[in-house]
Design brief:
signal; Rossmann fold; single chain; Peptidase_S10; alpha+beta; 10 helices; 2 domains; globular; serine-type carboxypeptidase activity; 11 strands; carboxypeptidase
Length: 294
Amino acid sequence: MKLWGGLAVVPAIAAAGTFQVRDPPASVYASAGRGHVGYYDFDNDTKHLFFWLAESRSDPANDPVVLWMSGGPGASSVAFGLFQELGPCLINGANATIPNPYAWNNNANIIFVEKRSVYFIFDEHLNPYDFRKPCPDGGLCYEEADWIAGYLNSSSMKLELGVPEDVAFNIIDYELGQYFDQSGDVSFDTVSWAGELLDKGYKVLVYAGNKDWFCNSAGEKNLVHNIRWRHQPAFQAQDFQTYTLDGKRIGLFKEEKALSFAEIFDAGHMVPAEKSKESLFLITSWIKGELTST
C-alpha cells in the first residue's frame, strides 16, 4: 500500500521494520471515514512507533499524504492534532467523539505519528497559546487535554487500538523536556534542514495564528525569510497578499516555488481547532496549488 511511503520521512525510521496495522475503533470513526492505526516496529523489534492514518475522504489512492507531528518538543500528535485540531473526529467529552466536518483528510491522507509527549509549563495565569484568553489552571490551558488522556487510557480503547494494557498514554512528559534542554538540543539549528528539503523540491507550508504568543507569527515570518535555499531572494522579495473566504479577509500569505507562509487572523496556537473552516480552506488550497490572492 503506497500510503506507507509517507512514513519514510520520519527520522526515527532508520532501518527496515514491520507494521502492526488494524482498523480504528468503530466507536471513534463513526461517519468519519476510513483509517488505520498501529505500530511501526524497527531496530530489531526493540522500538515501536505508534501512528494513526486517516484516509482521504475523496480519493485516497491518488490524494497526497500529509505527515503531522505536533511540536513541543514531544507534544502528542494524536491528542492535539487528531482529537483536538484537524482529525476526522474531535473529542467531545471524556468518552465521546464527534465527526469533524473541517477535517484535513477531506482531500488528503493524514498520518499522525506519535512520540513521548512533553510541553512547557507556565506558572502565570496567562495563556501563551492565545494572549487574548486566560489560563486558569496554569497548565496547557485546554480542557480537552484531560478528556483525551482519559479517553485513550481506557482499557477498552487500548484493546481496540492494539496498545498493551500496561502502556499508559501521557499527553505531557516533562522529563523529556528536561533532557531536551540539558542536552543542548533546544539550541540546535534545524532551519538548514528545511532549506535542503526545499532545494530538493519538497513543498513546505509554514503557518501561524496571529494571536499566538508562544509560536508567534512575527517570529515565524522571520524564520521563513531566513531559510537558505536557492529561491530565498525571490521569496524575500515577494509581498504579502490577502486571502479571503466567503468575502472575509482571513489571513496573509506569500509563496515562492516550494515555500509558502500563511498568517491566520484571530487564531491562536491551535489554528485548526480555533479556525476550522479557514484552516481547511488553507490546507486544501495549498495542496492543490491554488493558494492565490482573492
